[in-house]
Amino acid sequence: MDAVLANGPARPVVADELAATAKADFLQFLDEFTDEEGNKVYELAVTHMRENELTTLYVNFEHISAFSDALARIIVPNYYRLEPYLKEAVREFVLKYEADYGRDEKEQQREFYVAIHSLPTIQSIRSLTTARIGHLLSIKGTVVRTSAVHPELVSGTFMCQECRTVIPNVQQQFKYTEPLKCTSPACGNRTNWKLILEQSKFVDFQKIRIQETSDEIPSGSMPRRCVCVCV
């Protein structure tokens, strides 16, 4: 199903060839990568996910590099762009080995996530410039503040309060986002919406404030901080 954005009904999705290629290569990596003893590392990881009711697959970046340096070089500078496709690959991979794990206890589609760790370079907070937006990277620092964990809406299903039309899969755009206009041709509602909680998707959400370590702060400078969002 196409996503419904805040600016109106679903629109045809333009194919992203780079992302599609990265998804296929990443899925092949998950399926074929083995350790020194010949064990399929990520097939075992899926079993661990199922046994512990987890939805995040942790992937070692060194494994990706060893399997395909080309794939590794594509992922790093394009991670924000590729992440939805990598998540789709993870979902397909999980369902290949655990077909009945695709839905939760409410019979809603279970969301799966990918977390890539062990990058070869660790960046300082001070080096985070606009040139690194969208990149996959690791940073180091001292955690100075954390927020409480709370549910965050990521995809909402709304009911028009004027004509009762239900609009599913409204993607949230870094804030609470309602449909701009009812999709019913006979209805012009733009403001009167009800969120259907049972049909909407939420994730755990937490903010962490990280500060430069003392050895990274130039003489006479104030420590720099950044806020990380954990979902």
Describe it for me?
- This protein is an alpha+beta fold and 231 residues long.
- The chain has five helices and ten strands; from the N terminus they run ααβαααβββββββββ.
- The strands form three sheets. Strands 5, 6, 7, 8, 9 and 10 form a six-stranded antiparallel sheet that branches. The chain has a two-stranded parallel ribbon with strand order 1-2. The chain has a two-stranded parallel ribbon with strand order 3-4.
- The radius of gyration is 21 Å and the shape is globular.
- The mean pLDDT is 90.
Q: How many H/I helical runs?
A: 5
Pick out the low-confidence regions. Answer: none
* Main beta sheet: 6 strands, antiparallel
Number of strands: 10
Helix fraction by DSSP (H/I, runs of at least 4)? 25-40%
Q: What is the straight-line distance between the termini?
A: 23 Å
* Percentage of residues in strands: 15-25%
Global geometry: globular
The string of secondary-structure elements, in order, is HHEHHHEEEEEEEEE
Which structural category fits the helices and strands?
Answer: alpha+beta
Mean pLDDT across every amino acid position: 90
Rg, nearest Å: 21 Å
